[in-house]
Amino acid sequence: MAKQQPISADTAALAPGVWGVLATPFHGPGQAVDHRSLRAEVEFYRQAGAAGVVALGVFGEAASLSLAEQAEVIATVAEAGGGMPVVAGLSPRSTAPVVELARCLRQAAGAALIAVMAQVNSANPDTVRRHLDTLHEDCGVAVVIQDYPVASGVTISPGALAAVAAGCPYVAAIKCEAPPTAAAIAILARSVSVPLFGGLGGVGLIDELAAGAAGAMTGFSYPEGLIAAVRAHAAGGFDAARDAFSPWLPLANFENQPGIGLAIRKEILRRRGLIAESAVRSPAPGFPADLAPLLENHQRAAESQLRAGSGLSRRF
Amino acid sequence: MAKQQPISADTAALAPGVWGVLATPFHGPGQAVDHRSLRAEVEFYRQAGAAGVVALGVFGEAASLSLAEQAEVIATVAEAGGGMPVVAGLSPRSTAPVVELARCLRQAAGAALIAVMAQVNSANPDTVRRHLDTLHEDCGVAVVIQDYPVASGVTISPGALAAVAAGCPYVAAIKCEAPPTAAAIAILARSVSVPLFGGLGGVGLIDELAAGAAGAMTGFSYPEGLIAAVRAHAAGGFDAARDAFSPWLPLANFENQPGIGLAIRKEILRRRGLIAESAVRSPAPGFPADLAPLLENHQRAAESQLRAGSGLSRRF
Amino acid sequence: MAKQQPISADTAALAPGVWGVLATPFHGPGQAVDHRSLRAEVEFYRQAGAAGVVALGVFGEAASLSLAEQAEVIATVAEAGGGMPVVAGLSPRSTAPVVELARCLRQAAGAALIAVMAQVNSANPDTVRRHLDTLHEDCGVAVVIQDYPVASGVTISPGALAAVAAGCPYVAAIKCEAPPTAAAIAILARSVSVPLFGGLGGVGLIDELAAGAAGAMTGFSYPEGLIAAVRAHAAGGFDAARDAFSPWLPLANFENQPGIGLAIRKEILRRRGLIAESAVRSPAPGFPADLAPLLENHQRAAESQLRAGSGLSRRF
Amino acid sequence: MAKQQPISADTAALAPGVWGVLATPFHGPGQAVDHRSLRAEVEFYRQAGAAGVVALGVFGEAASLSLAEQAEVIATVAEAGGGMPVVAGLSPRSTAPVVELARCLRQAAGAALIAVMAQVNSANPDTVRRHLDTLHEDCGVAVVIQDYPVASGVTISPGALAAVAAGCPYVAAIKCEAPPTAAAIAILARSVSVPLFGGLGGVGLIDELAAGAAGAMTGFSYPEGLIAAVRAHAAGGFDAARDAFSPWLPLANFENQPGIGLAIRKEILRRRGLIAESAVRSPAPGFPADLAPLLENHQRAAESQLRAGSGLSRRF
Question: How many CB atoms lie within 10 A of CB D110?
Fold first, then answer.
């Protein structure tokens, strides 16, 4: 798979700020994709001031969607965004399936698709680079690298990751989700020029920003909190970010529980009226009824926090 | 995803014997699928006396093939088999992608496709059952259950696996690859009527047969050895199987080395003239040059073993 | 290992509140245990209002201490506590080494040792029960069960854990560190009467209290925050606990980074003047210099938070 | 932990051949160590022509023995060996417990103890080297490095392992149990001069010898087979080793089943009359009754193989 064509070096880096990782809402007993709710989600992020949205990420349950469904999701997101930049997650780890998927998504999405996001698929930087080269040459759009061992099964060192980024001029960002993330971001921030984003539901956001992250790229049931934190950091550094995001950390940690986090977050989105149903696709576990009172505690506090301002305008 | 149509209870179980898990051969710098080599492989299995073949299994690198390539592979296998039964592996673990893939493969394969093979996707038998029900209702062919935690990431108890099989009349076989396999097969053999097959390159075949397995469903560079062992067991029980397969175990163990087993097996198939190139798709590691002398040792011994007879006819 | 003597059913449950898991401080190039710093730590917890302390837990690096060192540590802790209740962690998972260690620690600790803490060592409740029975019969003190898969390698269901607790009248508490912890605590709180404690550095404390936990049993560089949270919950429920602990969550999450959490926490304890050196024993990684500015951010904020009151008296 | 005394560079390397890893037999309901059976085991290895024995390895259930029991075991083994070289396995991974244990074992064993065996405890060669330096300086005997990720949880590259061996003149051997073992041994054989031993119950022995191993260091219920294989390799290379060991591979693979392998091997040793009881300590699972007929198959074949000669003298 030798390089066949020159790779343009002028890829625009992703804008700093909050990139919202979209849930994929389902409806009815057959759990078809609920495009109406999906549109509402995108519109919500646009109004909230997100830098862009990421469809088909891990939180978007992309691995539970058929190729056809993924194409429909990206088409809806691109159309609903009204020009807002869109990144499409690519779940497979091998080159041929990733290339096939990227081609399919690019065709469905049109110009709104500014990047695809591929997972690190080897600890060896040369292997990753060849993989991304092939992907970029075929689909022609910029690439966001996602370093998320929980999903990829691969652990790569910050140094090897920097080598990948340095060798791939079409890389538009790195999504750093290999804990300890702040330590990795501190190392990468010294050695690469592409923007780095924290993820993991925001649990380490304050430190990731302090270490040099350009923002957050993650799902969270109250993205207003993430946006407030990133804006506060830009304006006032660590202390301001800490003041802005501390009130949201109880909820971020509640959502960050392994296994059930997806179901918790969709249930809150449903209660906020952003999506119609909170169903997740099997074999992911549903929302545990035991936790309903705790969820209500958090949501009540979150709504109160929203009303109190948090640096956000009244429109939410 | 409620059941919509009755499931026929008369699904034919897979025939006992050896089901060959096919390598997917690639050729050239672009590693396109080499359909000519693939056809030769199928023809080889047919002449060797295999009960059938399995395309797109883990050894077939299915997770590194695009949907389009997978359809082409199954079409070639079905056509080359000349009526030999074909099972198609399904790599995804979630329902929608599995259904999409099965539909696509069924259309490409035609009547030769007698079953699809799906991985266990939950420790909960009800979750697995609903998954398989949806798959079967949509694609209409029998289902082989693969219990292979290394690929699926899921550990299910033999009891729960038996419950799945008991509740799914369209299950045509279980491929048991969760060690200790002989113990699991002994338990399953008492509680389910579907045929059980050993896998894992044959390293536990003698015991799996003794515990009640109907045969082997696996890749091995010298399937003649597997066939000789299964026939010997049918004719003479444990001692005969042991005598027949002991000379092949050094090679089976050599191939069973984690990580590099795929590359070893393809390299031997290449040296046997069955496939034209031994390349594996990245990020799987290639054949370590260090091991070439060892591979030659094994192949020399294997050829000598073939000539010595092993209960097989001269045509190999 | 049949039961030989009756087990008293009147074991006193652990008192609710915060149980401080002690760091084991080392000094000098040989990294000998620094008993003077250890004493200061214990005294600090006593004055801070902890319900008790836990020596030789995972955060106490017990697995890096010799048997002799462990005995010396528990002796110092018991003596320095001035009557404060002490729990001793037991790192081994098999019965004979645990019994040997418990006997040794009990002798060294004297009456201050009110319980030993043993890890879940099997998913099978009968196996765990027999293990704990043997331990209790030999050492004669109450047992705290620690469910921490990261350390034990064992995953047990909440139902099986409840069965263990129900069958072992000498169990004085369960330390719940198998995420999602709030879901597990909600289930356990309905079925067992022993007190449940959250751990994991307090990242889920607010939810664990809401789900029924009696407090926290964990290490944290500012235990004042944990104590304020537990007291606030007792007085004002979720909202009060949330208000009290939100300002501490940025630090709790910073400390909770896998791998380096131990080094972070010891470094903060050192900067607070509670221990003389922050060294951790190999092969645990030391504090990454890259994170020093972030640590200073957190510590500055924490000191400011302490001064602001947080429901704590001035003596800290 | 700076080096305090010079390390002698003249450490004798372990002799090539088969080093028998001893089971620790237990008796009675209390599962006390059965020293009489242990002595019989040692005597058996001596008569069988083993190069030496390894007590307290993973197969010796060392992690389930108290420190006191481990000292008694090594004393019995040293005394029963009548001068046969003895290696003592060290289960802990941290320096202080390993040093404490080695000191205790050395005192109990006397002059028969020619080496202790320590596990790789870090992927970083400097960390491992400091660990082994401290161990050797304190206990004064040679060190065998065990690279067994299943027990240690650590994965080290062959290059890093070679660096450790090169920097530690007191290393007497490396036990290579990180699959693919033949590939690792091929790399190590080119770069280090210390003898390399295969383990893992002998499943890869033929290839390990071909790759440059000096022998096997493992448990196996019929060590006669291992000895025959190693002798055959010395006399006739790969083909001779293959002919000698092929008849033993069905049993080696049967014993190599994860989880239950320990119980299988002890049950066969019991049926051979080498140990009185086959009990294993909890939480290890016992021998599954389902597999009794299979075990009998193997044992009947093994006895027949012994009688047939296998290059061994009549005394077995």
Answer: 12
pTM of the model: 0.94
Q: What pLDDT is attached to residue D9?
A: 43
Beta strand spans in D248-311 (E): none
Q: Cα distance from A94 to chain B (closest Cα, Å)?
A: 5
Token pair of C79, please? 């003596």
Q: What is the pLDDT of residue D315?
A: 36
Locate A132 and state its tokens. 């991304």
- Taking contacts as CB-CB distances below 8 angstroms, the residues of chain B near D297 are 210, 238-239, 242
CA distance A43 to chain C (A): 30
**What ipTM was estimated for this complex?**
0.93
Supply the pLDDT for residue A12: 81
Mean pLDDT for the stretch of residues C239-249 = 98
Chain A residue numbers touching C290 (CB-CB < 8 A): 183, 186-187, 211
Cross-chain Cβ contact C250/A203 below 8 Å:
no
Q: What is the pLDDT of residue C285?
A: 92
Min Cα separation A302/chain C (Å):
11
State the Cα–Cα distance between residues C135 and C144, nearest whole angstrom: 11
pLDDT reported for residue D11:
61
User: Does residue A168 contact residue A146 with C-beta atoms inside 8 Å?
Assistant: no
Please report, rounded to a whole number, the percentage of residues in chain A having pLDDT higher than 90.
92
User: Is residue D155 within 8 Å of residue D149, measured between CB atoms?
Assistant: yes
Q: Enumerate chain C positions whose Cβ falls within 8 A of a Cβ in A.
A: 179-183, 186-187, 203-204, 206-207, 210-211, 238-239, 242, 245-247, 249-250, 253-254, 257-260, 288, 290-291, 293-294, 297, 301
C59, burial (CB in 10 Å: exposed 0-12, middle 13-18, buried 19+): buried
Measured distance CA(A212)–CA(D167) in Å, rounded: 39
Q: Please give the pLDDT value at position C39.
A: 98
Among B210, B257, B297, the residue with its CB nearest the CB of D297 is: B210
- pLDDT score for B173: 98
Residue of chain D nearest C61, judged by CA positions: D94
C5 has a pLDDT exceeding 70: no
Q: Give the pLDDT confidence of A291-302 residue by residue, as tens digits.
A: 999 999 999 999
pLDDT band at C271 (very low <50, low <70, confident <90, very high): very high
H-assigned helices in chain A? 35-48, 67-80, 95-109, 125-139, 149-152, 158-167, 181-191, 205-211, 223-245, 249-255, 261-271, 292-307
**Are B93 and A283 an interchain contact pair (Cβ–Cβ within 8 Å)?**
yes
| Closest CA of chain B from D203, distance in Å | 7
Phi first, then psi, for residue A18 (nearest 5°) are -105, 125
pLDDT confidence tier of residue A11, bands split at 50, 70 and 90: low
Contact A93 B283 (CB under 8 A): yes
Helix count (H) and strand count (E) of chain A?
12, 10
Of B122, B130, B283, which has the smallest distance from its Cβ to A122's Cβ? Answer: B283
